[in-house]
Specification:
By secondary structure, the protein is mostly helical. It has a single domain (26-243), classed as MetI-like (MetI-like fold, Orthogonal Bundle), CATH 1.10.3720. The protein has helices at 2-14, 26-61, 66-80, 84-94, 115-141, 144-152, 157-187, 199-209, 214-243; strands at 101-102, 110-111. The longest helix is centred in the N-terminal third of the chain and has 36 residues, at 26-61.
Amino acid sequence: MYLIAEFFRQLVEDYPRWNFIWMYEPVQQEKVLSGIWMTIQLSVACLFFSVIIGIIGAFLQGSRNAIVRMVVQGYIQFFRNTPPYVQLLFFYFALGQFTPTYSPDGWLEVPIISNVGWAIISLSFFAGAFNVEIFRAGIEAVPESTREAASSLGFSRAQTFRYIVFPLAVRVSLPALNNNLVNLVKTTTQAFGIAVPELLYQSVTIWNDYPSALYPTMLLVFVVYIVLVGVLVMSMNGWERQMRIPGYGL
């Protein structure tokens, strides 16, 4: 590690505009590592909750209750037709004003939902709106005869959805779901706007203090997101191959 640090110290002396400061200064290195870890946590949480929202929303879209269907459709239209960054600011600054607070030390009032929490909520609802439509398309691709066969065997609507329709619909939905989840991971950079200490936020603090670190740090951001998205895509592609059934999906 010492030799690597010395190499980058020498590099910045020879090429001042390429200051990989986080390779030889522990404080900046800690910023980068904590930013990457926060980005991973934020991405995983948003992926999980957005998929859950998509599944529930797709199920409710088939409800016999017109009011339920209208509520789901209203949710979809709101989150699909407004920019995710505006949604993020709305959740944090507008709804955040009504968030209950607690006082850990008897003096400072801390909201029960932090900026990280609002980022997860906002981005999950944003991606969830698209996931609802993705899963709905997958559900509609399941032949009606399959539902009728399940009904004739005594399955309830919920049982038919859980055991028959949804497993088949997932296989149809995976390619589109893969694309939406990739976009969601990239959209997590917008959490920078409410000071969530993810990778982009930490990178900006580094090159604000050390302008010579701008190019190397931006390069790091690109590489990290390429790796994260690459891992997600390979995982989704592997899952798709394992779940493939002739006649469904690609």
